Amino acid sequence: xxxxxxxxxxxxxxxxxxxxxxxxxxxxxxxxxxxxxxxxxxxxxxxxxxxxxxxxxxxxxxxxxxxxxxxxxxxxxxxxxxxxxxxxxxxxxxxxxxxxxxxxxxxxxxxxxxx
Length: 115
Description:
mainly alpha
């Protein structure tokens, strides 16, 4: 009986802990720990590559925009503003003229026709 208990205790001690890091296979070499400086250098390299890609995309976008402008298609499809009527011009001028005086003749920004 005692021998069986000792064997069971021995088996429990032989079990590797679940939280313990696993040992690398014989063919693999453990990776060296990266220092903060190494990580910063790696990040800088990745950032430089991303900046190069972004610059290339920006150059392409600028070239396309230039082609649109030179081809006359830059503002195509946009609604043109209708010309202002005389009443709208008068209301805008009056609003500028009387701004801050408290005597605004067009308080609702609507053109008003005076008799």
